[in-house]
Amino acid sequence: MGLTGEMRKLLMMNGIGQIIFSYIGIFINLYIWEESKSLFDVSLYNFFTYLVWGAGFTLGAHLLTRRSMRIVYTLSALSGLTVFLLLSFLHLEQRLVWIALIGSVVGLTFGLFYAGQNLGISLSGKAKEFSRYFSVVVVMQQVVSVSVPILSALVIMEFGYSGSFLLMLAIVGCMLGAALLVPNLSLAEVREREGDWFRGIGYFRVFHTASSKWLQAAFIAAGLFFQFQNLFILIFTFSISQDKLIIALLNAAYTCAAFAALYVHRRVRLGEDAWMFIGCSVVALGFLAALVPYSPMLVLSNVLSVLGMYYFGVNWQTKVYRSMNALPPMQKLRVLVWRENTLCAARCVMLLLLFALPDIRGGWFAVIVVLTIGFMFAVPLCLRRSEALAAKQQTHAAAVTEGMSSSV
């Protein structure tokens, strides 16, 4: 595999997290959708999820400078246990309050988990490892995306949602145990030398170069694009069928499409920019197919979106982490806190636009589709511009250093 021991342990935790989050991503959204078939309810749940996700990530980053990564993962697991206990036993008359509460606890779980993942990868990984790590992660995602929905659907059909919640409580318990095995990374010593991370968190101190400003622009565009893609691949699926097993089988079909994308990606030698452009083009075709609101076109839309997102996602993650690789640890933390909160804020903005959307047809939906396609293509353009400016800056710095050496 070519990964260090620390990265393999992070990969193990990533796999456990993917099982839990795959279930949450499909079946909690479906659980909410089934009650009223309301896009507003699903958007509200996702809005509170991402609203608290950013705060959870920031809390996790803060804890990493005072405690350790194990504490962050432990708190994420405890928050996950709370999610499934609330789903099992809490029933409120005010449905919107219940949706907001569930979304908030889910967001805290996600935020803490990805604080551990993202900061752990950034601090443990080397530049040459990032591509290998994310390639393995994508393969794991596809395996989980096939198996978890089908197994969960069978459990729900046999024992109801309550039975599936109990199963997930057991899996979150495994995550709690695995939290003791992850690298015990901490930035406490760095904090003692450099001071608290939040003292240099201002925008102009974190993004003080032209290249970093283009990186931040990529984060904004990516958040807007990701939220539309993530939400509507679910809504399109729910619109085709309410049958849990059919939904699971459709997700399995989408995963097969991702495996096909993986096969092509490994066989064809192209640069990262070319793959991202291909990914954007395929996803755009998928979005445009969704403007024809018939079940076969919605299935085609999702298949194309999954194909394109593979090419987009692997190269997006690799480029972002590589751009931060040379930064000192505390500065990496600041950039990642900005990245996560920017992505979450942009997702919330997209969800606010979707609140007014009555269904997946009509002029307003078409406008949002076109805007999302524009945001999507902006991501690789911003990343390419950021890389070009960073390379120019490094060349200039090397020339200055060489000149100073020659004069001496």
Description:
With 408 residues, this protein is mainly α. The protein has one domain (5-394): MFS general substrate transporter like domains (Growth Hormone, Chain: A), CATH 1.20.1250. Helix content is 85%, strand content 0%. It contains 13 helices and no strands. InterPro entries: MFS_trans_sf (IPR036259). This is MFS transporter.
What characteristic shape results from the CA principal axes? Answer: globular
Put simply, the count of helices is 13
> Which radius of gyration do the C-alpha atoms yield?
21 Å
Q: Overall mean pLDDT score?
A: 86
Briefly, what CATH class? Mainly Alpha
The ordered H/E elements are HHHHHHHHHHHHH
Number of strands: 0
Strand content: under 5%
| Helix-strand makeup class | mainly alpha
**Helix percentage:** over 70%
Q: What's the domain count?
A: 1
Given as residue ranges, the uncertain stretches (5+ residues, pLDDT < 50) are none
What's the CATH topology name? Answer: Growth Hormone, Chain: A
Span between N and C termini? 46 Å
Oligomer type = single chain
Biggest sheet architecture = none
**In CATH terms, what is the architecture?**
Up-down Bundle
CATH superfamily: MFS general substrate transporter like domains
